[in-house]
Amino acid sequence: MTRTTTRPLFSYSWKIMLAFGLIGTAVFLKFVYADETETAKVAKPPAMPVEVTLIKSQNIRIWKKFSGRLTAVDYVEIRPQVSGLITEIKFNDGQMVAKGDVLYIIDPRSFTATAAKAEANLVAARKRYSLADKEYKRSKNLINTKVISQRIYDERINTRLVTAAEVKSAEAQLTEAEVNLDHAYIKAPVSGRLSRSEITVGNLVSAGSNPPLLTTIVSSKNIYADFEIDEQTYLNYIRDVRPAQDATAIIPVKLHLQDGKTTFSGKMHAFDNKINPASGTIRARAIFDNPQGTLLPGMYAHIELGSATEKERILVSERAIGTDQNRKFVYIVNGENKTTYREVQLGDSIDGHRVIRSGLNSGDKVITRGLIRIRPNMLVAPKISTTKKTANNT
Question: What parts of the sequence cross the membrane (predicted)?
Answer without folding.
Answer: none
